[in-house]
Specification:
Elements (H helix, E strand, L loop, with lengths): L1 H21 L28 E9 L2 E11 L2 E14 L4 H4 L4 E14 L7 E7 L9 E11 L2 E10 L3 E8 L7 E8 L20 E10 L2 E7 L4 E10 L27 H6 L2 H11 L3 E9 L2 E8 L5 H12 L9 E8 L2 E8 L2 H8 L5 H5 L2 E5 L22 E4 L8 E6 L5 E14 L2 E18 L2 E13 L19 H6 L4 E14 L2 E9 L4 E10 L6 E13 L7 E16 L4 E9 L5 E10 L5 E9 L17 E8 L11 E6 L16 H13 L29 H17 L3 H17 L1 H10 L4 H27 L2 H28 L28 H16 L4 H15 L5 H22 L7 E5 L4 E5 L5
Parallel strand pairs: 14-15
Antiparallel strand pairs: 1-2, 1-12, 2-3, 3-4, 4-5, 5-6, 6-7, 7-8, 8-9, 9-10, 10-11, 11-12, 13-14, 15-16, 16-17, 18-19, 19-20, 20-21, 21-22, 22-23, 23-24, 24-25, 25-26, 26-27, 27-28, 28-29, 29-30, 30-31, 31-32, 33-34
Helix pairs in contact: 10-17, 11-17, 13-14, 13-15, 13-16, 14-15, 14-17, 15-16, 15-17, 16-17
């Protein structure tokens, strides 16, 4: 059996995956930095949307391991790990002797500003080494144009590492489409590179370089000759926007009945004997359905269930109702399916016409006709009574399954046993990788992990994990942590060094549904390898909305390194509130705020994009008051936690469907700032994918698995696209037209001038009054309020735009637009005035000293401009004039903190008010810009309302 399964896996990849790979069209070519370009120089191109590339290049004296992803159609993000031959990583051989060559991490960005047209080139702006040591920092602007169908040319200008003008050309012969000749003018200033005087970099000068490229499907190779040496660059490209990489040739067929299938019972027979319900439950259990509850409520067959394997909710429900049609009583009028995750109801599917349902599954009628007999509601339909959780439980499957290569978790080999009540045992090898420690640039850990999950009651689960270390190189890590924060993560090597069996998790999770849109979890036990505790989470996930909020609170105790029930002295309470917001193009933004693991308070921003294949890529950045001065952090600029992550659904790589995902992240593994406890059972992670399926198009997904429907958007979602420019253009046109139509501009400008002159006359006395009370506590607090209130107003405007109804959302957007316009106008005045900040001895109009940035000029106040710009649309739309008073008090706080003169905040406030008032009057009628997705059982489409006038 196993040999046959392995055969199917290999042949599936060979027959489906490899031809797909080699049929892939040529992609844009990365340079040695990972950015699309030539040899060392970039072009204005970015890769096809969703292209993920990684490769290795050698360009004496640099070895470059790089990766790149086209995160959005106009944004390319590249990361590289550059080693310098001949330079030791650490001068102290006792401390970092095993680290090898000097290595440095770099993140680069490229923004496509303008697409190429018939006459104009494409233009991109790039920034290299945007964080960390910034040894390779630089910026550039580059334009690229296809001069002929097979000839591309680029011209650009750079600053810092790329110094001055550069360019490149690529010629791809029509007769040899896989081959390209390239040439470039390399403008890198290698002599300013780190350690250039000690390496071959000092011998390199600006000048021409030529190369030859070959591409075969996803694989590419470049060989180039530069003035003093040769270079090589090899890569693999993976298109993340492909739906799947391997065909599902081993997917079990849906239920079609058996030759000995008993006749459907009458309703009386069904109620008299439980055998019919048990037969249906058995048939469902064989298809990986879990927590199966079945009941006849009047003439409706109600099923409550989830599925441990099938990744699409619509397909899961389709298989359930298809099976139910073979067993339902003859008098059944409708079938209702409550889809659950961990017994929490996500949605209720109602099928009102069983003959139509049967005809649709048999391919006799189209989807539009079928949709007229279906309804989908969030959570549990209130008409459905809760089902008995004690009935229809099946016993543990007989025997133990040993799977090689073909298991549904994607492990190489595993031992599993499970049942329909979601009780499960799983044993498989695991491997962890750790980079960039002074004791060695690369460490790994190989272990065997046994997981046992047990359902104890409705929504109550025991979750455990026992790990046995088989082999690791982490024992080579000798350097103790020198972090000044509580060692919540920086001692991880001490935990990994222990090879004895360890109980990494022993946790009770109680999942609850508080309302159709509110879910909760209570947890207690051993959370993870380093912490134990008790806590919980509450999630509000509204129906057919693109946002959700949750609160996570945990009281935690640090565990000792032995991995059982011992403890360390450290205790803390972690509390984080999170807002998750789904943006266009499959992008989800998450903002977390609160107390982190090391008792540091702050915020964490996460941004990720989900591609058509289901793969998610993103990054996070955390800013807290925890002062991590461990290098590269310094007392003046503490380190902030940051990293990249990739989530890969294993089903995209296997010949059958599965829900299992693989998580990968790249971040420092010995940092304490901005850390979070690992809590198995995060509600948003559990619910977001099924919610996304239910809210997409008609909510049925691949319901019937019909061959003639695989091109439908609900089955195979189209590549994500988002074009905001038409709406932006319309708003700009309306604002410009309204400005021309305003007939009171002269009077308003005259009144503003009078008020401004009066404020200028009061600059000295007002400044003197606050100077005399600068030690007053109330004045100090006023200054803090004035500094923070504009930030709060922007945040509230953004929340109104993201979370409000149509009226509130439009007002919030106008407030944000007004704030941007006000800051732009204020910046122009700052550049012109170059006014010095106030002090006790300054004259009001003294110029700033030489060397100070004009954008830091005192005149005008950006804070005041933002405050009035953001509150004005709300004050006018909702008739709330008191908001102006709050803005005025906040603006005066900038005088209290001695950051501005009275005339600064006066002119800034007038500017903000003018922008807010103008844009509100221009854009308050949001019906001109409104577009919405229509997804009902009767129709699917996009409606755009643009009145013609």
């Amino acid at each position: 059996m196993h040999n046959k399964s392995s055969y199917h896996l290999v042949t599936g990849i060979l027959q489906g995956g490899l031809p797909l790979l080699f049929a892939c069209g040529a992609l844009a070519q990365p340079s040695l930095t990972g950015q699309i370009g030539y040899i060392n120089m970039p072009s204005a191109r970015v890769g096809d949307d969703g292209t993920f590339s990684f490769g290795y290049g050698y360009d004496k004296p640099y070895g470059i391991l790089w990766t790149s992803i086209t995160a959005l159609p106009w944004l390319e993000v590249s990361g590289r790990y550059t080693s310098i031959s001949g330079i030791a990583g650490f001068s102290d051989q006792q401390y970092g002797g095993a680290y090898g060559r000097y290595k440095d991490k770099t993140i680069d960005l490229k923004f496509k500003l303008w697409d190429e047209s018939k006459w104009l080139p494409g233009i991109s702006l790039g920034a290299t080494d945007i964080q960390g040591t910034r040894l390779w920092k630089g910026t550039y602007l580059v334009a690229s144009k296809n001069m002929l169908p097979n000839l591309e040319a680029s011209l650009g200008y750079g600053k810092d590492r790329i110094q001055g003008a550069f360019g490149g050309v690529r010629f791809t012969p029509q007769a040899l489409p896989n081959w390209s000749l390239i040439a470039e003018y390399d403008a890198n200033n290698y002599r300013t590179d780190p350690f250039s005087s000690q390496t071959a970099a000092a011998q390199r000068e600006k000048g021409p370089a030529v190369g030859l490229e070959y591409q075969w499907g996803w694989l590419g190779l470049q060989i180039a000759r530069q003035k003093t040496h040769s270079s090589i660059n090899a890569r693999i490209d993976i298109p993340l926007n492909w739906k799947e990489f391997v065909p599902k040739i081993q997917e079990p067929p849906y239920f079609t009945g058996e030759s000995d299938l008993p006749a459907r019972p009458s309703l009386t027979e069904w109620r008299r004997s439980p055998d019919s319900a048990k037969a249906l439950a058995t048939a469902l259990g064989k298809q990986d359905f879990k927590n199966i509850r079945i009941s006849m409520q009047k003439d409706s067959l109600v099923m409550e269930l989830g599925n441990s394997r099938i990744s699409n909710v619509g397909r899961t429900v389709g298989r359930a109702v298809r099976t139910a049609l073979y067993f339902a009583p003859l008098e059944t009028r409708e079938i209702r399916v409550v889809y659950t995750e961990l017994e929490q109801p996500i949605a209720t599917y109602n099928f009102y016409d069983l003959p139509i349902l049967n005809d649709y599954l048999l391919g006799k009628i189209d989807r539009d006709r079928f949709l007229q007999t279906v309804s989908i509601k969030s959570g549990r339909d209130e008409e459905i009574k809760p089902l008995d959780s004690q009935t229809l439980a099946l016993t543990l499957r007989e025997g133990i399954d040993v799977n090689l290569l073909t298991n549904r978790e994607g492990d190489l080999i595993q031992v599993t046993s499970d049942d329909t009540e979601d009780n499960r045992f799983h044993l498989a090898p695991k491997m962890g990788f750790y980079f960039n420690d002074p004791s060695g640039a690369f460490h790994y850990d190989i272990m065997a992990e046994a997981n046992y999950k047990r359902r104890l009651a409705k929504g109550l689960y025991l979750d455990s994990a026992l790990n046995v270390d088989l082999y690791n190189t982490i024992t080579a890590v000798k350097q103790p942590s020198n972090s000044l924060l509580p060692h919540v993560r920086s001692d991880i090597a001490d935990y990994k060094r222990v090879k004895a069996p360890k109980l990494n998790r022993l946790l009770l999770n109680q999942y609850m549904t508080l309302s159709p849109n509110t879910y909760a979890r209570v947890s207690a036990g051993l959370y993870e390898e380093m912490f134990r505790g008790v806590g919980g989470q509450v999630l509000y996930y509204p129906n057919i909305k693109n946002w959700a909020v949750d609160l996570n609170v945990d009281a935690l105790q640090q565990r000792d390194v032995n991995g059982w029930f011992g403890k360390r002295d450290y205790q803390t309470i972690s509390a984080l509130a999170s807002l998750h917001y789904q943006l266009p193009m499959g992008v989800t933004a998450t903002l977390r705020a609160g107390r982190f693991l090391a008792k540091d308070d702050g915020v964490r921003m996460e941004l990720k994009r989900r591609f058509r294949s289901g793969i998610e890529a993103g990054f996070w950045y955390t800013k807290t008051n925890g002062n991590d001065i461990t290098s590269p952090g310094t007392p003046s600029k503490p380190y902030s936690d940051k990293g990249l992550f990739l989530t890969i659904p294993i089903n995209s790589l296997l010949t059958f469907d599965t829900k299992t995902v693989g998580d990968f992240s790249l971040s420092p593994w010995t940092r304490d700032v901005g850390q979070m406890v690992m809590t198995p059972g995060d509600l948003y992670e559990i619910l977001s994918n099924p919610k996304r399926d239910i809210d997409s198009y008609d909510g049925l997904g691949n319901f019937a698995e019909r061959a003639d429907e695989q091109a439908l958007p609900a089955v195979t979602p189209p590549l994500p696209s988002y074009h905001p420019w038409p709406t932006i253009k319309l708003r700009l046109e309306d604002s410009g037209n309204h400005w021309l139509e305003m007939d009171d501009k002269t009077a308003a400008l005259a009144a503003a001038s009078v008020v401004s002159l009066a404020a200028i006359g009061l600059d000295k006395p007002v400044n003197r009054a606050f100077d005399n009370h600068q030690d007053n506590r109330a004045v100090k607090e006023w200054g803090k309020w004035g500094k923070n209130l504009p930030i709060a107003s922007i945040a509230l405007s953004g929340a109104a735009f993201a979370l409000g109804d149509e009226r509130l959302s439009n007002t919030g957007l106008i407030a944000l637009e007004s704030s941007v316009a006000a800051v732009a106008g204020s910046s122009v005045l700052k550049l012109a005035a170059n006014r010095a900040r106030p002090s006790s001895s300054d004259s009001p109009w003294r110029k700033q000293t030489a060397g100070e940035s004009r954008l830091q000029s005192s005149f005008t106040s950006n804070h005041s401009a933002v405050l009035f710009a953001s509150v004005t649309p709300f004050a006018k739309e909702y008739d709330q004039p008191w908001l102006y008073g709050a803005a005025a008090l906040g603006s005066v706080g900038r005088i209290a903190s001695r950051d501005h003169w009275l005339s600064d905040i006066t002119v800034g406030g007038l500017l903000g008010y003018a922008m807010g008032s103008w844009l509100w009057q221009s854009q308050r009628d949001d019906s001109r810009y409104r577009s919405k997705l229509i997804a009902t059982p009767q129709q699917v489409g996009v409606q755009i309302d643009v009145p013609i006038r």
